[in-house]
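input
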Amino acid sequence: MSKKYNVLWIDDQHKDLSAVHKTATDFDIQLWPFKSMNGGCGELEANLSKYDAILLDAKFFENEDDKPGSEDTQWIYDTKDRIRDLDKSLQYFVLTGQAKTYASEEFNKAFKNVFEKGKDEDEDTLFKMLVQACQNRELTRLKHKYKKQFEICTDAYIGSKHFDRVIDIIKDVENPEKIKVAQDMLNPMRKILEALFDKLNEIGLIPDEIRKKQGSLNGSSYFLSGNNHNYEYHSELIHPMVAENIYRLLNITQDGSHDNGKKLRADEYLSLSKNHKLYKSTIYLLLDILEYMKDFLDENTDKNLNQEKWEVRKFTATIDSISGKVIEIQDSGWGVFESDDKTKTIKIPDYMMEKHKLKLDQIIKATTKPSPDGTRTYIDEIFIE
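output
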């Protein structure tokens, strides 16, 4: 698959310049044309991460619906300032048929890369320089290297607001010598996973009652693993390796996202680490999850079909309510409940421990339910006295 570079183009006569479009295609460049400063800059502000370079005419409109005759060179100077304010790494080039402007010493001081329309040699040089500018831009190189990870950071998937979070994380793994405060990146990772769960809920893969209640991050991960005994699974939801990766990553990011740390004390460990290997391993986990999920979301868009993969389990046996306390908190995050009469000990899932912030020796009440085969007892709900 060839690499495509997206170049925003402002030229009030772009519709009459089919030859320029053709030349751009020959150089693997997709031009996105506008007639005015506000049209082009408005698009750039809305979709900044999409573009790799800018191409400008010397004279164009202020607004897309301006009348012929209102074109002015003032707008290219204002456009230049707006580009600089948005992203200093975006290079801009000028392709103009305005001979007077082209020859202006003042103009050439303000715009270093100026080329003449209709002059084959100039246009070839321009597009070679455009390609080179795109290739040398760090963000563009990373977008091509981590294509799916960035494609999923659009509003069609988990949301464009996560683009900057992903780019910051990727820059750390690309330039580990520049990592400063690794533990501060755990919360952005958690927010990315949270957005992913929201999208899976939107397409019907995670039930509303799981995603929209307290403790929903751990609950969502647990549900995707296929182990939630409140549900009957009719088919595999996601690949079990990906479900495991999500579980492992969530354990670290959840722990590190709390100011005082939790059972793993991840924030403390990362702050003391001198090699960043754990932090980099979490980045690779996240990148693998995002790459898998980009394809998965493309292939599983039907909400009804996704909801057919699971259903709420119907329990017919009598549900008991018992009092007791938490007698153990395991390294896995699971707890152990013991009834007051000491006749029952039942494991408490990690997402319930997280939801209720349960502590050792805490007194609680629980409703229970039997396993489908009737051989075991599960905790259904927990109530804090």
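quick obs: The chain has a mean pLDDT of 90.
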